[in-house]
Amino acid sequence: MVKVFAPDWWRTATPYTEDLCVTLHVFHNCTKFNIPIQTCNRVKSIRNALFAHGQLQVNNVERKHALRDLITFLKQPEISITQSGKLAITQLYSLKSKCVIDHIIEGDPVGLQHHLVNVLKPRDAAENTILDRSDNVKAVRSCLSEETCVPLTCTDPCLWEPAFTFDGYLEDRPVLFGRKWLVDKVQASLMTTPSRGIMLTAEMGYGKSTLVSHLICSGEQSHGIGLQKYLLSYHICKFDVISTQKPEYFIINLVSMLIENLPEAGNAILTNKLAFHFLQVDKCSEDPVGCIDATLVHSLRQLTFDEERYVIIDAIDECGESAAISMSLLDVLSKRIHKLPWWLKFFITARDINIVNSKLPEMQILHEMSEDIQNQNDIDTFLTDNLFIHTDTFSRLFGTQAEIR
């Protein structure tokens, strides 16, 4: 196969087949294989950037992206059915599950202690600044961190850049206290509803945005990690940030994440000439409904997946009518959400406003109220954990715990 399908410069007396580039050439040139071209290109990029030219180390981000793309490549049916393919997938998953701390423990337990002291207790601001620049320290912090936000980024070669990201807003997120019952309720409803998804409505100040941030940034042991594993994209509406209200940014971000995370969907979008035409912010902004039709409705019409994927939109009522934009994200969704693929489901939050509910009748409504018993129980637990540490003092000043409650 190498002699037939590889380039002339590989055809030596003894064909060299150990280089991954040879395999990629065979997959590309032999029409018997149906591996998406973008999947092969990503693996080729990894090979060229990280292995071909003697690079001796990779940072944590490069490692994460390389393992993800290599595993995606190996999971292609033509490869995963072979014994060597199955073995390679197992080995990569094992490598992926190890963070830098595991490697330090294997080779140098004393070094682990030294790293942790430096990471957790820098002696001054100057030392902390230096540590922040170290990829090794970032890797340790990544292992220690309980939360990882779903990124709206793509790896090289990036076939289509996201139009707008929300990292800064997520960094300012408050911590979710309690509400495990609500996380469970949202997840269970999303996974069982026959509708287009779930819309959580509640009064201002209920904590809807905090819940959304928790779902996007759940740690491995957190409530919400089940939904996060299938979270494809998200959008955060801000009434005072015009960019967050533009439907074209939502559409292009979602398309970008489809291309990045679902190769079959990416291939369907990128091979559609009209979709590719619309994948420019100026074109999409001129006709957002036509843009969502070309890139998502028409391109993905024939695709099916065994598992659903989720899209989160926070505060959709703040992406309603605005003098700054010609058509709102709420209007675009009201016109097209029912035509999107069935495997794409939405979790949307909003204040309990009639116009929002009427524009999205395809959504199952979960209306929550602050005075519900579950919320009261969460408040009790918070007060107990934070105010009644010195029980005798509070009882003397304010009465018993029961009276205060």
Q: Would you write up a description of this structure?
A:
By secondary structure, the chain is of the alpha/beta class. It has 2 domains: 94 residues, no CATH class; 218 residues, P-loop containing nucleotide triphosphate hydrolases (Rossmann fold, 3-Layer(aba) Sandwich), CATH 3.40.50.300. It has 25 helices and 5 strands. The chain has a 5-stranded parallel sheet. Strand 3, helix 21 and strand 4 form a beta-alpha-beta unit. Helix 2 runs antiparallel to helix 3. The longest helix is centred in the N-terminal third of the chain and has 15 residues. The termini are far apart. This is Nephrocystin 3-like N-terminal domain-containing protein. Keywords: Repeat. InterPro entries: NPHP3-like_N, P-loop_NTPase. It holds the Pfam family NPHP3_N.
What is the strand and helix layout of this fold?
Blueprint: H1 2-5, H2 20-29, H3 37-51, H4 60-74, H5 77-80, H6 83-96, H7 100-107, H8 109-120, H9 125-132, H10 135-144, H11 167-171, H12 180-192, E1 197-201, H13 208-216, H14 225-228, E2 231-236, H15 242-245, H16 247-261, H17 263-270, H18 273-278, H19 281-286, H20 288-298, E3 309-314, H21 329-336, E4 344-350, H22 354-359, E5 364-367, H23 373-386, H24 391-398, H25 401-404
Parallel strand pairs: 1-4, 1-5, 2-3, 3-4
Keywords:
single chain; 405 residues; alpha/beta; Rossmann fold; 2 domains; 5-stranded parallel β-sheet; 25 helices; 55% helix; 7% strand; repeat
Low confidence ranges: 400-405
The biggest sheet, with number of strands, parallel, antiparallel or mixed sense and barrel status, is: 5 strands, parallel
Mind telling me the C-alpha Rg? Answer: 25 Å
Mean pLDDT value: 76
Per CATH, which architecture of the largest domain?
3-Layer(aba) Sandwich
Helix content: 40-55%
What is the SS-derived class?
alpha/beta
The CATH homology group name of the largest domain: P-loop containing nucleotide triphosphate hydrolases
Looking at CATH, which topology of the largest domain would you report?
A: Rossmann fold
> How do the SSEs run, as a string of H and E?
HHHHHHHHHHHHEHHEHHHHHHEHEHEHHH
Oligomer: single chain
